[in-house]
Structure formats: structure tokens, C-alpha cells
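#lab-general

N.A. 3:47 PM
ok so I finally got the sequence cleaned up, no stray characters, all 250 residues accounted for. can someone with queue access submit it? mine expired

B.Y. 3:52 PM
send it over

N.A. 3:53 PM
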Amino acid sequence: MTTWVLLRGLMREARHWGEFPAQFQAAIGAAQLVTLDFPGNGNLHAQASMRSVEEMADHCRHQLSQRGYRPPYRVLALSLGAMVAVDWSQRYPDEIDNMVLINTSLAPYNPFYQRLRPSNYPALITALLHGSTAQRESLILRLTSKQSATAQAPALLQQWVGYAHACPISRANILRQLLAAIRYRAARHPPPMPVLLLAGAQDQLVNPQCSLNIAQKWGCALALHPTAGHDLPLDDGAWVALKITEFCQP
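B.Y. 4:20 PM
back already:
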């Protein structure tokens, strides 16, 4: 029985997938789908975040085992979650059938100024370390989604602020996750299983050139959405589900 594992990014939790898991499950016909939180986020917000991507990967494996899920898995992962998926696939290749990685970036394939656009540094430092919850979530919405310019933005922001109040992430955990992402270096050889890269051409957080570079180095499939931002499942979940369905067809 196929189990899809969904992993979010920095400071995000399972609820930030929104309606996408149900939309994706209906499109792909997956019998089992599980969304995981990293320590420090969501249901695990009271725990200390891991200091390395490798520890995050091992924690995901432990969570799945505790819940009774058994490999091999198929993994759909976004941003920092995609780094975790890559590490997982390289250390435990027999546990993963295939991977779909969304708007990720990896050392040594991508320079630092593409992995996080330098123009965002001042606003991110201010909002993440000194801003209020509402200011932080507003900035994240603006940088990660084209929904920030729509009529749905106020309701979405209110929802995200509610998540943050219900499951607050500490500044110490934010720093731990940032450092884990900065320190991680993927192996120079490509993952041994099929990989699909998805990227939003209008990503304001991570330069989509990162996905293009990785696809070239790995020789794997890539699909570029012309108008979506960093949070591709939020901006166009139907497109994401379609591309994955095409990728998984024999």
C-alpha cells in the first residue's frame, strides 16, 4: 500500500498545507497520506527543534514507525522539508520509492544568494527575531504566496496567525531550523530514485534557478509554474497534483 509523506518547510506545520492534502489524495488516488511536523512546529511546538537536517530526517522516520507506517514511502516535500527528504533518500534509499521536491535549494548546487534572496535579509531578520506574530506571518505570506495580493489574503493571514498563537514557535527554534538549513550540504551524487522538481517562477523567497540547477545536475524532471510563488501547493494545488500524477504514471 502506497504511503505519501508530506513535509513542510521552515516554521510551518501540517495545517499550512490547507486543503491541498485532500485535493492531492483525490487526484493521485493514494491509499495513505500522512503529514508530519518537525520538532518545534505545530503539534510538536513545545519540543526543541533539531540542529541538523539529518536529525530531522531521523525524527520523521521515527514518527512514521511509531504510527505504524512502513516503508517504502513516496515523499512530497517543500523547501526545508525537501532538504530533509534529500538527506533521507541518500542515507536510507531503500525507504523511498520516489520524491517530489518543491522550491528547494541545496548546497553545494546553489550559491547562498540564490538560496535566500539577499533583498529579503533585513525584513526577515527584523520580523523573525523582533516582530510580532502578526508581522511575522504577514511577511511570510507576502514572500511565499501570490495569494497575498488577492481578496483571500486577510482571511488566510488571520488563519495563520491563529495557528501561530495556538502552537507558538519560539525564536530559539526558529534559529535552530535556520542554522540546520544553512549547514546542510547534500551529497554530490543524485538520489537513486526517481525525482520530480517543481518550482514557482515568481518565488520571492528562493530563486527558482536553484531548482533549475539541481535538475541539471541530477538529470531529473522539472516543471516550472509561470505565476506561482514559493508555496506552490497554496498558489495552485491543482497544478501540483496534476504534475505529480503525470510523474507517477507508468
